[in-house]
Amino acid sequence: MGLNLYSKIEPFLDFYDEVYTLHNEFMSIVFNKDLDNVLDVGCGQGFFVESLNLNQKKAFGIDLSSEQIEACYHRGVENVACIDLKDVKEKYDCVTAIFDVINYIQKDGLKEFFENVYNSLNDNGYFIFDVNTLYGFEDIAQGCITMDFDDKFIAIDAIYEDEKLITDLTLFIKEEDESFKKEKDFITQYYHSKDRLKKMLKKAGFKVEELRDFSLHSDEKADKQIYICKK
Ligand SMILES: C[S@@+](CC[C@H](N)C(=O)[O-])C[C@H]1O[C@@H](n2cnc3c(N)ncnc32)[C@H](O)[C@@H]1O
Questions:
Q1: Which pLDDT tens digit goes with each residue over 31-70?
Q2: Whose alpha carbon is nearest atom 23 of ligand 1?
Q3: Closest-lying ligand 1 atom to the alpha carbon of residue 23
Q4: What gap in Å lies between CA 130 and CA 124, rounded to an integer?
Q5: Ligand 1 and 2: CB distance under 6 A
Q6: Å from CA of 23 to ligand 1 middle
Q7: Is the minimum distance from the CB of 47 to ligand 1 under 6 angstroms?
Q8: What span, in angstroms and rounded, lies between the C-alpha atoms of 91 and 85?
Q9: What span, in angstroms and rounded, lies between the C-alpha atoms of 190 and 100?
Q10: Which domain holds residue 153?
């Protein structure tokens, strides 16, 4: 899947303000529950790990994309690694998965992922994550964007069908000889209903303490829901 190509395109998507509001919501939960020692799964370019550290919280970030982890190092965020959650040995008071990470997981992979989160938490630890609502997938995420710069051209085309959002990513980068090199890949995100998530979380041993509506890209309806779950 195109996680590494997504990493190259992400800085140009201009989501920073929106993602900042989402990170603030997660940060307020971490503070309200008085949690320290946070594992951020799918940490991306390390912005949440960095904010936790700035707020005197211990944090570690992991991501499956080596490009994202390289981008963290480039930004000076060192407490991150490109490893799978199942290989994490330390225990944490809180695990976060922010900005679509759970939507990258297929239906039949959810149980194992939630069990791995459960195993990396201390007793009474919290698992906090967001997912896209159906409205978020159907009305907000679908569509096509192109961006034309002097040294690159980006095209993103997303279609939602059969509970899946398939996003085609195309990047042309100008080479030294002025020719353009093309990179193409796609990302699949999966819609997970509230019933499915609650069932899988329960099976893994979690209690859902709170379900919060969140509007990231829309002023009308919630395009995301935040789950606050306790071990
Ligand atoms: C949209 S980005 C969000 C990044 C970051 N959490 C943020 O809030 O800016 C989703 C990230 O999840 C990562 N990812 C997807 N599936 C993952 C998994 N199973 N384990 C770890 N990282 C994953 C991707 O590589 C990508 O960096």
A1: 999 999 999 999 999 999 999 999 999 999 999 999 999 9
A2: 42
A3: 8
A4: 20
A5: no
A6: 14
A7: yes
A8: 11
A9: 10
A10: 136-189
Q: Which helix (H) or strand (E) holds 113?
A: helix 110-119
Domain co-membership, 110 together with 31: yes
Q: How far apart are CA 69 and CA 170, in angstroms?
A: 21
On whether both 183 and 199 belong to a single domain, the answer is no
Amino acid found at 156: I
How far apart, in Å, are the Cα atoms of 194 and each of 14, 130, 133, 200, 204? 29, 11, 9, 10, 15
Predicted TM-score (pTM) of this structure: 0.95
Please compute the mean of the pLDDT values over residues 129-155 and round it to a whole number.
95
For the Cβ of 129 lying below 6 angstroms from any atom of ligand 1, the answer is no
The structural domain count of the chain equals: 2
With a 6 A CB cut-off, is 44 part of the ligand 1 pocket? yes
171 vs 185: CA distance, rounded Å: 9
pLDDT band at residue 15 under the 50/70/90 scheme: confident
Residue linked to tokens 């949440």: 48
